[in-house]
Every structure is written in structure tokens, then in C-alpha cells.
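Protein in question kept in full:
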Amino acid sequence: MSFQLHQGSAPFLVSMPHVGTHIPDELKPGYVPRALGVEDTDWHLERLYGFVRGLGASLIVPRVSRYVIDLNRPPDDAPMYPGASNTELCPTRFFTGDPLYVEGAAPGAAQRAQRREQYWQPYHDALRAELERIKALHGYVLLWDAHSIRSEIPWLFEGRLPDLNIGTANGAAAHASITAAVAGACRDAPGVSSVVNGRFKGGYITRHYGQPASHIHAVQLEKCQSLYMQEAAPFAYDEARATAIQPVLQAMVGAALDAARALYAR
């Protein structure tokens, strides 16, 4: 199985599409050696978000690296951010812009289609089915799409990112009260900056599944890795930093859940 699904009891699903580190052995010869270090992984998110299981959350987590296929890109490979540097459904570049593959080894159309069928489709089938299961039980769902990234990547964005980047597809993916609750929960956190629908507005998962009219609300949180780990190899988890930021994350998640419950209170 290329992913793990934990089914919880709450109206709450957490997706972590970029935490996988596995590159199949048969694909490794096509990558440049540096790629096998999978430096652009969303490192340690399962550990950082360990508290969500105690909230009754469902959790879907892939094994495969985003270097094989990006589970947060549309199946037709349309750019998420037209006019900016974008990574593809089957990425061909590091976040630095350097080539991932040795010359001539980037996947062609047939291999991209095969990866989409083998890895992308099962993940999204399971994600969709879990949303439907939760909605059938509770009448609504909060989908939290969890990400992290280095705070400075010139190929993708100018300058330094805010620490916490909340994305709701410019308000289309979640009710305004949920967005406001999430933003409010971190606004006064000391030494922590935040923005709503800035450089990162939500990828395919947020934009596609967030359907407030159908009682499915999606929030993406792209956080700087400097909040909880070393941003350079060996990408170690920083217990002190993580312990400091976890209460902020818990407050954001809790505020989103409370806002969602208020929308559907009987």
C-alpha cells in the first residue's frame, strides 16, 4: 500500500500529501544522486501533528515521495500558480530549480500516466471515500491539509515566507468563519508571523475537495520548517522549537473545529 489511512471518530480529516520519502528502486537510476536525499519532503509532520489523533481525527499519509508524484497537484498537471515557478504532477526540478533527473531520464507521458494510476489515484480515491464516510456520520467535514517548507526558496518565492501560511483558495474552500477562526488563533502568537491566502492559497486538495456548499471545508496550512526542525540536512526534528509551536497549531485546529461545529449546531 502506497499510503496509510487511519479512520477516526470526529468530523475531521488530516491529509499530509508530501511527507512520503520512498522512491521505488526501479526508478532510482533516473534521478541525480542528490534526489535520493528527498530534501523537499514535508519532514516530521506526523510527529508534529501527533495531537490530532487525540481529537478523533482521521489521517491519510503517503509513503511515496513527492519526487515520484505530487499528490497535491491536479491530474491534468495544470499549474497551481500561473505566472510563478511551479512543480509538476511528476516533478522534474528541486525547489532550487535544479534538475531532479539525469539528462534524458525525466518521465515521459506514458510513465507519468502510470504513476498517476499507481500512486495518485488510490490516494485520492481513499481521501474522497473518507470524506464521504465522515460526512455521512456527522453531516460535515473539516479537511486540514498539512504542509511544511523551507522558509527561504528563491526559485519559488521572494524573500522569507511568513511562519504560518493559511490557504483557503481565496475563501472558496472554507466558510469565512472557519478561515477567521484559524487566523485569529495564531494572530497573537509571540514571535510567529502569519498570512491568509498569501503566496500559498492551497493546492489541489484544498481547492478540489473544499466545497462549503456541500458541507466540506478545507484549510491548507503551509508552515515554515524553521518553526520545528533544522531546514538543512540532516533535517533533524527540534524538540524545543516543536514544543513551542505545537500549542499554536492545536489552537488553530481547535478553532477551526469549533467554527465548523457552530455552523452545523442543531
